[in-house]
Amino acid sequence: MEFDRKRFKQMFPHLADEMQSSENRVPISSVRTDANLGERMANSTKRFDNYMPDVIDFLRRCDNEKQAEEIIEYLHNRDEITADHAQRLKKQLKAKGVRSFGPKKQDDYYSRESTM
Predict the structure, then answer these.
(1) Given pLDDT bands bounded at 50, 70 and 90, which one contains residue 21?
(2) Which of 1, 29, 35, 108 is the most exposed, having the fewest neighbouring CB atoms within 10 Å of its CB?
(3) What is the pLDDT of residues 24-67, one digit of tens each?
(4) Domain boundaries, the chain
């Protein structure tokens, strides 16, 4: 089925605007022509399948001590960490800062790491 731009815009005005906008674009930086290589790469991304982040993983995403304190309290209130563990984490946070738990994990950490 073929559409001209005018008819497409009449039928799907929001989609047409979104397609013409420069926002929300996802660049395609590579194309795999070897199907076997593509399958191997897709399977290598399973490194974090069934991985459950722990309190340290969450703390490494924090930008400041306030955020880290909120994470510790939240996980303690949900009984995901004990009161003793929460106290030790808070003590480390106060004494050494949020980066003492490790370098900051960026938003794409798991996708970058799964391809390494």
Answers:
(1) confident
(2) 1
(3) 777 766 556 667 766 665 665 555 556 677 898 889 889 999 99
(4) 51-116
- And the tokens for 77? 């209130």
The CA R_g of the chain, rounded to the nearest whole Å, is: 22
pLDDT, tens digit (0-9, with 9 covering 90-100), for 63-86: 999 999 999 999 999 999 999 999
Distance CA 17, CA 116 (A): 37
Give the separation between CA 68 and CA 54, rounded to whole angstroms: 13
Rounded Cα distance between 24 and 14, Å, is: 13
Residues in contact with 89: Cβ distance below 8 Å, sequence separation at least 6, in sequence order: 55, 59, 72, 81
How far, in Å, are 34, 84, 104 from residue 93 at the CA level?
48, 14, 14
Q: What is the pTM of this model?
A: 0.54
Residues 57/113, Cβ–Cβ less than 8 Å: no
Nearby residues of 59 by Cβ (< 8 Å), 6 or more positions away: 68, 71, 72, 89, 93, 98, 101
